[in-house]
Amino acid sequence: MIWGYIMNKNELLIELKDIEKYFPIRGGIISKTVESVHAVDGLNFKIMKGETFGLVGESGCGKTTTGRLIIGLEKPTKGTIMFKDRDLNKISGGELRELRRNMGAIFQDPHLSLDPRMRIRYVIREPLDIQGSANRSEKDEYVLKIMEKVKLQPSYVNRFPYELSGGEKQRVAMARALINNPDFLLADEPVSGVDVSIRSQILNLIKDLINEMRLTCLFISHDLSVIEYMSDRIGVMYVGKLVELAPVETLYDNPQHPYTEALLSAIPVPGERSKTRIILKGVIPSPINPPSGCRFHTRCPYTFSKCSKDEPKLFEVENDHFVACHLRTKS
Amino acid sequence: MELTKETGVKQTTILERLFSSLSGLGKLKRNKASLVSVGILLVFIILALFPNIIVPYHPETMFMVRQSPSSKHWFGTDTLGRDVFSNVIWGVRTTFYIGTACVLIELVIGFLMGGLAGYFGGWIDDLLMRITDIILALPTLIVLILAVSMFKVRSINIIILVMGLIGWPYMARVIRSQFLSIKTTPYVDAARAMGAKTQRIMFRHIMPNIILPIVVLITIHFAGYVLWEASLTFLGLGDPNSMSWGVMIMSGKNVLRTCPWISTYPGLFLFFLLIALQLLGDGLRDIFDIRV
Amino acid sequence: MSKLLELRDLKTHYFTREGVVKAVDRVSLDMEKGENLGIAGESGCGKSTLGLSILRLVRTPGRIVGGEILFNGEDIVQKSDEEMRRIRGARISIIFQDPTSSLNPVYTIGDQIGESISLHQYRGGGGVFDWLLGRFKRSRAREVDEKVEDILREIGISDASKRRRNYPHEFSGGMRQRAMIAMALSCRPDLLIADEPTTNLDVTIEAQILDLMKELQKEFDTSVILISHNLGIISELCEKIVIMYAGNIMEFSDIKTLFESPKHPYTEALLNAIPRLGSRGKRLVAIPGEVPNQINPPHGCKFHPRCKDRIDGICNRRSPPTIEIEPGIKVSCYKYISKYELSDMGLYNEQKRIVD
After folding, report:
1. Which of C232, C283, C287 faces A197 most closely, judged by CB atoms?
2. Which ipTM score applies to this complex?
3. Is residue C30 part of a domain?
4. A9 pLDDT exceeds 70?
5. Which residues partner with C194 through β-bridges?
6. Distance CA C33, CA C6 (A)
7. Residue B175: its pLDDT value, please?
8. Phi (first) and psi of residue C242, to 5 degrees
């Protein structure tokens, strides 16, 4: 637990190179693979140490799958994931377990994130039990310390999850994720399943802990307002691809991709009735049979002939701001 | 750092944890039916363990044949002169032996087949489930009859083995579906994300959450196996030396009109046991459900 | 002209094993024709139960225990089951959050929309015999099918004659919600209750649905009650808004005033607690505490344990009355009751002194 050194913001923690993840759909008597869900299709980005990277998109965009790939819950069909200079595909099971000490994760559904038959102290203590890093009384000490950090009363240790509210369960999940003092936190829709008035508590808690514990965070959400509040840099995903990548200020002040524009204008603002909203036609394409060329071309208000034929690549339009769109790339 | 003093938080030792799970038994008080069933079962269990307490005569001693119930022979004597009461009481042990042994067999095989299939999926699931489906498709009674009659010797252990080997698919299926549903829960995901090994996930996370539906199924299956044995005996395939209730009922079959007590009393006891097991199922669910 | 809908002291309680849940606890509000009303609040505040109560669809162990629901002047609470059946779907309609479970998977979309039409637009509609008649009598069937196709086109489903033969699972989530809206509006009701209609939908699809609802309600002259925890979509669609908390109405106002100058501390706190676009640097102010237990709610004002403006001795003694502080703006909060009135009510603060 030595955090005395100066954080190098330019240090790379995680890198995804050409990641593809296909889920096979089985069919027939002998369960042949009939089709695939192209959950993630050619993803490339980096997460720097100390930053909170926000991943945003609607259903089927692959953001949850990306999170799961990074923490090793799924193995990519193709491509490499580098975590702290280690290739997740090439390391052994034992090394992966070691590496997991540096990762923590919290998920969307607070009610199912905790084993309903385990008391809170054992839930929070489990990462330590698995890693075998300390003896029993030391472990309990850590449990109490982390509970204090997430603002949970110590008397909760012997309770069962069903006795806690949704917000409290998310705190337990946070405690469990952070008890090992990881470098990296995956937060997959942590407040979508929580009451509106509690969301701000949890978001502020996550923010404070990220600062206090100098965490690198991948924050996944479908809610652009939440992402804006939490992230330093943001990636916008659509049907398995990254369509725009930018620091938070640039993305919201100067969105380049037509999808990002539409997404931003679709958000209803409390207190205002919007006059100009971009209403996209059609439905979100299924990742089973994604559209050819640029996947957004079926709904894009600016589509032209090239869009249905060639797939656009990410192109840097201004400092650190990347877009995958034929309209913006100068060829 | 003295945890207890500073924070007032108690450490739970293993003993304490045991006690708290036993307190679950207190929950039975709610349901009158399960109290009754527990009462009946306790009586049965005591009889199974210590038949000597109440049995007046050695079950094989022969008295006068076909005596109707009297103060000397509460349930009368059977066609060979044996005291029916003593035999019925000794039969409790046999019945429990049958039920418990069969359930154990089906649990072991069921967990192996169903658990592995459900947890690993893929070709393992396909293979194991095909085997399960094949056995399920067989007509149970006929197969039982065939299997048991294949053996020259009529032995209770063979019957138990055969029943267990025919009956496990019903348990395996339920176990598999439980594994499937729990495998995808976020808390199992979280355990994997922490680096938990497969054994840990299976035993620490999945098994405890399976208990509820399985426990009820166990009581139902227990009753089922006892009935199967009785049916086999009725069809002439039972072990005549085993003194199970099935055998006793069978032996009184021909003299049902003249000496009804020979078949009736064992039958009554069978009936009460089955009812008790049925009612217990609900009670057990209450005990094991943390929320209640 | 009587108001479209008026609720007076409505009480809907759930009688559970653990106790009585006062889901709707003395709610009064009114709504004019041509106006859309938003009912906002978190989960458990009773807004869904309120919506169901208006149509008397509350299921056991819940039931309406008191108050009046005046729809065009007539009290719905007093109506018979037969009268209610004729109102539901025809004069007041409702759509729910999850279109997948609200649609029967074994009937085609066309059948389900058609059912609504046959039930209400044909004399004696409602019995099994009429339904069978509707399906097998050719002329009737054709009429209904045409009407169904018209509606499908109106809600933006092109290729209506083919798509009405589709089953719900062949439609996407957004389209299913459109089908629900079509069903609900097929009989041109006066009032549509929409309970979290877009919560399960993606943002871009939500925008489409809201747009559609805006168009249709104008075209069909249907007033909408929009129930949601999302203040943004209420702002998009409604003119008036009601904030509910733990079964009570905390504030009733028009959209502009509510967001510019909220009166109730809960409203204020809520507005400061939700992340909004453009509020990048500003830290969210969390509301302390938890949503109250529904069986044993706090004594007095239900929000007082979490309220930064609470006055001990007053707020925890008795539930505050609702007062109209400006025309069209009502609040339930002791802040807006003068000290004289408070002492008249017999309320003093902890030092037994008249409140400042």
Report:
1. C287
2. 0.85
3. no
4. no
5. C95, C226
6. 11
7. 93
8. -125, 135
Tokens of B258: 């003249």
CB contact under 8 A, A140 and B190: no
- Contact status, residue A240 vs residue A290, Cβ threshold 8 Å: yes
Into how many domains does chain C fold?
A: 2
Element (H, E) at B110: helix B84-110
> Are C256 and C338 contained in the same domain?
yes
Question: Which chains sit next to B, with 3 or more Cβ pairs under 8 A?
Answer: A
Is residue C260 included in any domain, yes or no?
yes
Number of cross-chain residue pairs from A and C with Cβ atoms under 8 Å apart: 131
Output the tens digit of pLDDT for each of chain C's 356 residues: 568 899 999 999 999 988 899 999 999 999 998 899 999 998 888 999 999 999 999 988 999 999 999 998 889 988 888 888 888 888 899 998 888 888 888 888 888 888 878 777 765 555 666 667 666 777 777 888 888 888 888 887 777 888 888 888 888 888 888 888 888 888 889 999 999 998 888 888 888 889 888 888 888 889 999 999 999 999 999 999 999 999 999 999 999 999 999 999 999 999 988 888 887 778 888 888 888 888 888 988 999 999 988 888 888 888 898 888 888 899 999 888 877 677 777 766 554 444 44
In whole angstroms, how large is the CA radius of gyration of chain C?
A: 22
Nearest to C175 among A268, A279, A283 (CB): A283
Question: Do A162 and B290 make contact, defined as CB atoms within 8 angstroms?
Answer: yes
Comparing CB atoms, the residue among A73, A116, A144 nearest residue B193 is A73
Token reading at A239: 């049907």
* A260 → chain C, closest CA residue: C204
> pLDDT higher for A329 or C163?
C163
CATH of B27-288, one of 1.10.3720.10, 3.40.50.300, 2.40.50.100, 3.40.50.10950: 1.10.3720.10
Across the interface, do A195 and C43 touch by the CB < 8 Å criterion? yes
Asked if residue C319 and residue C251 are part of one domain, the reply reads: yes
CA distance A207 to chain C (A): 10
Please tell me the number of Cα atoms within 13 Å of C183 on its side-chain side: 27
Helices (H), chain A: 63-70, 93-99, 120-131, 136-149, 166-178, 196-212, 224-230, 248-253, 258-266
- DSSP assignment of B193-215, as one string? HTT--HHHIIIIIIHHHHHHHHH
The last residue of one of the domains, among C185, C203, C226, is C185
Kindly give the residue spans of alpha helices, DSSP state H, lying in C24-137.
47-54, 81-87, 99-102, 109-121, 128-136
Q: What is the dihedral of CA C181, C184, C189, C191, to 10 degrees?
A: -70
**What's the CA gap between C219 and C216, in Å, rounded?**
5
Q: How many residues does chain C have?
A: 356
According to DSSP, residue A153 is labeled -
Contact at CB, A141 and B3, closer than 8 angstroms: yes
Neighbours of chain A (3+ CB pairs under 8 A): B, C
Q: How far apart are CA C192 and CA C31, in angstroms?
A: 12
Residue/partner pairs of C263-268 with CB below 8 Å, 24 or more apart: C263/C325, C263/C329, C263/C331, C263/C333, C263/C336, C264/C331, C264/C332, C264/C333, C265/C303, C265/C307, C265/C308, C265/C309, C265/C310, C265/C333, C265/C335, C266/C303, C266/C306, C266/C307, C267/C243
Interface test with A, best of B21, B194, B210 (most A CBs within 10 A): B194
Same domain, C180 and C250: no
Say if the Cβ atoms of A228 and C229 lie within 8 Å.
no
Average pLDDT over residues B122-140: 89
Query: Which candidate from A101, A112, A144 shows the least CB-CB separation from B187?
Result: A112
Q: Which of C142, C168, C185 marks a domain boundary?
A: C185
Has residue C15 been placed in a domain? no
A contact test, residue of C169, C211, C255, C290 with most A CBs within 10 A: C290
Domain with C279, as residue range(s), is 245-345
Q: Does A266 touch chain C (CB under 8 A)?
A: yes
pTM of the model: 0.85
